[in-house]
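Protein Entry — a single chain follows
Next Lines — sequence and tokenised fold
***
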Amino acid sequence: MDRDSGPRVRVPEQRAPEKPGTADALRFTVLGPVRAWRGSELLSSGSPQQRALLAALLLRDGRTATAGELIDAFWGEDPPSQALATIRTYASRLRKILGQDTLVSESGGYAIRTDRGALDLTLAQDLSAEAEKARAAGDRCQARTLINKVLGLWDGEALASVPGPYADNQRTRLEEWRLQLTETRLDLDLEVGCHAEAVSELTALTAAHPLRERLRELLMVALYRSGRQAEALAVYADTRRLLAEELGVDPRPELAQLQQRILRADEELARPADEPAPAPAPLKPAQLPATVPDFTGRSAFVSELGSRLATAEGSVMAVSAVAGIGGVGKTTLAVHVAHQARRHFPDGQLYVDLQGAGARAAEPETVLGSFLRALGTADSAIPDTLDERAALYRSTLDGRRVLILLDNAHDAAQIRPLLPGTPGCAALVTSRVRMVDLAGAHLVDLDVMSPEEALQLFTRIVGDERVGAEREAALDVVAACGFLPLAIRIAASRLAARRTWTVSVLAAKLADERRRLDELQAGDLAVKATFELGYGQLEPAQARAFRLLGLADGPDISLAAAAALLNLDPHAAEDLLEALVDTSLVESAAPGRYRYHDLVRLYARACAERDEEPVERESALSRLLDFYLATAAGVYALERPGDRLADHREPTQYSGLTFADRHSAQDWLYTEANSLLACVRQSSGPGAVRRAVDLLWATKDLAESGANSKQYEAAAITMRDLARSSDDARAEGRALITLTNARLVAGRFDQAERDAQRAMRLARAVDDPLPSCWAPNDLGIIALYQNRHAEGEAYLEQAIANFRADGNRPGEASALCNLSRIHLAMGNTTSAVALAQQGIDIYDELGHALRGANGRYALGLALTQSGRFADATEQLHDALAVFRDSRQRLWEGMATFRLAEVDLAAGLPAQAATKSEQALAILRGIGGEWRRGNVLTVLGRALSEIGQPGRAQVCWREALDIYETLGSAEIESVRKLLVPTLPG
């Protein structure tokens, strides 16, 4: 392939081929420039003609080349009169460099004697042979790895700059082999399910080698498996037309057969072909939590469930559902049984806590995404919708023997998408509800332990000696626990940790609560009474921490946030939290992070409502909100030096964390994202709404990251509604700006415009500078997207004036860059470049890395339209690097898309097609359909220019469908593209 215009294989930095031996061993490369090393020293190989002699000898694999053969290799049929003398001169020079023992003279010719493996080509051949063996044995993953190593040995064009007919022939041969290896590796990519990742590379390769039918065939399969059937068929149509025009032939039969299979929607084609000996799964998940070492009793249930799992191979869907009240030991039993059954499921075990007893049960869509990743599916190959994920999940499990443990399920509807559908797999479900509506499930009702089992569990934890001396007291203890395993474990752990206590002391303490324990026969009361036992043994400070920490809604809490909520220094807070971990009332999710089991959290809140004054509960949550707001505002200030949020936000009484640099600040923001947004949603008190809205404002980056966009928008809607219901115009105006931002990210411009208009009216009414500045800025962006340029110009000029009046220079820079885009759309390229540069100058002066990247993005657009393609590429590449570093997936995708536009304008359609495919992959699930339509339009233009008009038409039709649904201004321009081109 042409390394200047075609696709390039990503390779590591070229080094001498590795070969065990002495440090000064000679090594050679021909898969790139012809080079020689002695150890790590690169030797001078002389002139191009001298390198030609070295290459000719190396490629003979140690065999002697006669003088006549070398003369033919150098000059063909027209050698000079002094050809033989010239050969001898080159040979003499090489011998001085390589040594007498390496370049030898014999039989009137020359040969190079080296160890096997000293030449990169020999290494490549050996690795290729190993790859063929691995593939024949069914180990596709190993075969891919080996072929990638082979391709990594190339450093550009083989025998680069080496003259002579022999070198020309060998260069062609080696380049053909390289292309065959690339085809093989891409074929393996498709066999292991990496079809989505292969599309962009295949698009570029087919552009570089338009008549190579095998590449077209691989592209059709990759597109079909990516759900792009119409494009796959368009590839065939393009190929047939091209072959007829260029060669006057039809596609080969294999390609025509593939077209028919795609037309029939062949299900077998939709998944990798079976191998004679299937390769092992890319990943074998082993997600089961550790079983408890003192598991006790439940022998009948263990036998019953174990037998069901052992026979799963012959069942269409082996599902066992264990139901019982909280604390009865459902999870402990299920994990124990699952561990015992592991040998029946050699392809792995999946586990998830579905949080069914909490206020926010896990979404099946989210769980499926996690499971698919654990099973080896790339992020880019995971579909967006629940039904598509469920279908891919079942397909991925087909042919495997995997056990799925679905713990703490809410109801049957939650777990149905998570069930395997093929023989060999099994699901084990635990839930507080009996799933009578789960068709085909084997239902198990788990009751409390028998007295004998309960005493055995208690003894294993406390010890035979202590229990044996006070057997009657021990029986009293387990009876007081209602024979609930969790209650027994808590009580026994407390006793085991207090060597000065006797069993009788514990029994006497439990006797004081006998009236409550008598009522443990129904529902959650049993769980609460069991937790009451542990809670009653806490020191006052521990009990307070337990109560108050349970008030926070987040999935977990960091040590720093917990310290703020408790109004303690971090060391004191850590001592209390670790003590709670020791009692099993709190779990250590990770170093420095803590969480409650969902039922324990409910109990902790009940304790807080019972034992804490309302003002103390409100103060605790207020301190947590203060901590999050102060810290997030600090992160915001690091990202946006000079921004006026710090001057206009609500004051906080509790300080936050500080960070040395923007990267550590970003790490904190994204780690705390779920907890931050949960804190926003629960901040409904009259004194909290304004701070919660400002917290949303300070965490705007979460909306643009892609990972938290939906949660951010939901929180913004919640705060808008709370502010409106409390008649707080200032809070509502700011909440509407955060919601505008979220909807701009999602591409819902009509909704964003309504929100921004109302925010601007409210800001004027209460004289709030933040939305007064940002609302017209956002309205200008919306007007730009909707081709209302004069209106957008007016909005942005108003925004610039407002930012300047407020002294908000970063905001002024933002509006200048947006105004640059308006001028560009109106055809004023000179002023567009100048405005963008003004914005960048402000950003650079203030030290804005991320926002400076937004300015360079705008400048890149203006330079593209000015025809300064190299300058535009430089600006956009700089912006792209910052967006990636800042985890801004939306802008990473958009910068990649704009680079595709530059390539297209610069006459590089193959590169434009590759970057457009990359942009589609990055923007999956973020940015909205309008942006997707824009990328598809450019992809279609690029495909049309590289000779794939059929596939281009498919892209344009999809873009047109998007624009028509949205009523976008781009409808007419895309319709013109879809007008069939008349021949000749």
